[in-house]
Every structure is written in structure tokens, then in C-alpha cells.
Amino acid sequence: MDVITLFKSMIERKSETPDDGGALGWIADYLEGYTPLVINCDEVQNLFIYKKFSDGPHLCFAGHVDVVPAGDGWDTDPYKAVEKEGYIYGRGAQDMKSGLSAFVQAVHDTKAFKGTLSLLLTSDEEGPAKNGTRKVLEVLKEKNLLPDACIVAEPTCEKVFGDAMKVGRRGSINGVIEMTGKQGHAAYPEKATNPIHKIAQVLHKMAGVNLDEGDGFFSPSQFVITDIRAGMEVTNVTPGKLKMMFNVRNSTKTDQKDIRDFVHLYFKEMNYTLALDQSAYPFMTDVNTHIVRTLDTAIEKVTGVKTKHSTAGGTSDARFIAPYGIDVVEFGVRNDTIHAPNERTSVEEVQKLYEVFTELIRSF
């Protein structure tokens, strides 16, 4: 089987989170000679599969088989791999059955390697992400099977294939501020304490403000307000309570304490509570590590493009891998139609991604 045939077959497996569409069992059978560890948790299907060729470093390819629901607005059946004008259409074409197929085929075709090759696969990346990669890593640590380096094959390129890899990601901190005032009649504002009026005095000093200056790899951590609500949707009663929600995609220069201090600076005269929840922590892989340098070289050899090192975008399962001390990077096809109707990627990109991964394995 070649990588394009494999790619098409993966698209045609309907695998909306947490369903794997039978993909993980098929991959376990396809990689003959590899040792599979099935690590399922509740409805989530997980597979870690590895082969020790010889003594040497442990290189892992990680990814997910699950996709978001197809939704409406498609010109073709989202679960039929339709090829036209050099593109293959289908849900998951970019995110991330292209990357999945490329590394599965590259590993399948590898006959020799100085070390251990493995795949870490889950059906719970697009969902809560609580019973997927995180659970597998816990088991791998117990069994002393954690890899030395890992590539997550999420779509990372921007304008042309090969132009960007992720060497880190921002964290994500969600916050909820609840203010208590005193409800009253709109005709007698002096008898009430209106939390909307209170927050209006400081909102312009908080909304969209950068909490740090960023650096050469990370954008500044920005205080982004996502929701404000208060009142009873009537015009003659002022509210007694207000809730404001916000998100900070934080760099390594801003943490929860910084955010608490920032909020308190403007709310210290108000009756408020603040709750923070960190769903992802920022991480950065040293660009001089072996995995980054080797992948740089493989990309340039296959594409002729000198890739840039980026931390932009949302989060991925790399956020769970980095805390284990594993050098982790992300590299895949272009990201311009993920989660959208008519998601697609080009035949050329999938073929070249397979070639990059094959070259990486050969030279690692």
C-alpha cells in the first residue's frame, strides 16, 4: 500500500470523537512486527505500538485518529475521500489524517533503525482530551517506555508546505470574575451599587492588554475578554451581580499569579471573586536539540524550504508530552481548512510529508 491509498482509507473511516472508526486496530495489524499496547479508557481508544530495532534513541510519532463532526456546507460526502484537481477532500484531511497516514506509512516502510520507533495514537484529541494521550503517557512512564523525542503530525505549515514547524505552544488560562453589588431601581441609582458601572471604569485598562512583551518565539500574553453578563434583561432594575469570563494564551513569561495580580490591581476596591483554570501550560523545545535540527534538515532536503520555528496557534497533545522531559515538535501539512466544510489537502503535500518522515527516520 502507498501513502495516498492509506490516506484515503483513513478519511473513509468515520471517527468522530471518541470513536476511532476501527483505525487503531487496523494500524496495529498493518505494522507487523511491532508490539501493541492497547490503553483504552472509558469510551476512548488509545494505542501505543513500538519496535526496538537496536540500542539507541527512542523516536515516537504521535497523533489522533478522531475528527470533529462534519457539519453542513460540504460539496462532497465528508466521509468519502474525493480527489479532484490535485486535492483530496474529506473530514480530517488536514487535521490530522494526512499526518497520521504519512508517519504510519513511513514507519511501515522502515526496515532498519538505530534505536526504537513507536506510535502514540488516541481517539480523544478533539474532545475533552482527558482519557487519551495523557493516560497513555502515564502508562508509558510506569513501563519505562517514554520516548526521547516525539513528533506530533498536526498541520503546521502556513503558505507553502515546509514553511513552519511548531517548537512550542502557548498555554491557556481561563478565568471567571464574579462581582457582587446591590440590586436596585434604575430611577434611584444612588441607592444601588451597579457592578456594570463599576467595571466600566476599569474595562478599558484590561481588555486586550498585553500582560508581557513576548519574545522571539512567543507572542505577548493578552487578556482577552470572552463574555460579560449581568441583569435580568429589563430596563428598570439595575443588577446585583456580574460575571465576566476571559482567556489568556500565556507565554512562559506569564503565569496564574501574574493574572491574579493583574485582576486585583483593578478590582481591589470591588467585591469580587476570581477563579482560574489552566487547561494547557506553555512549553518550548530548544531549537538546538537533535530532533529539531534533524527535522529541519529533512524538510529542506525534501522541499527545498527552510522552515521557521513557531509557537503560534492553539494547543495540541504536545502540551501533555513536553512535561515528561521529552523533546517534542509538531510538523504536518498546511493548515487552512481544518474543522471547515470541504476540508482538503493536496496529494503532493501528503506524499512529501511521507518523504520528510522517511528521511527523518533514516537520518535520526
Topology of this protein?
Layout: H1 3-11, H2 23-30, E1 35-38, E2 46-52, E3 58-64, E4 82-84, E5 87-89, H3 97-108, E6 116-122, H4 133-142, E7 149-152, E8 164-166, E9 168-169, E10 172-180, E11 184-185, H5 195-200, E12 223-230, E13 237-238, E14 241-248, H6 256-267, E15 272-280, E16 283-284, H7 290-303, E17 308-310, H8 318-321, E18 327-330, E19 344-346, H9 347-363
Parallel strand pairs: 3-6, 3-7, 7-18, 8-17
Antiparallel strand pairs: 1-2, 2-6, 4-5, 5-19, 9-16, 10-14, 10-15, 11-13, 12-14
Helix pairs in contact: 1-3, 3-9, 7-9
Written description of the protein model:
By secondary structure, the protein is α+β, with helices and mostly antiparallel strands. Helix content is 25%, strand content 25%. It contains nine helices and 19 strands. Helix 1 (3-11) crosses helix 3 (97-108) and helix 3 (97-108) crosses helix 9 (347-363). The chain is elongated, with a radius of gyration of 24 Å. The two termini are 24 Å apart.
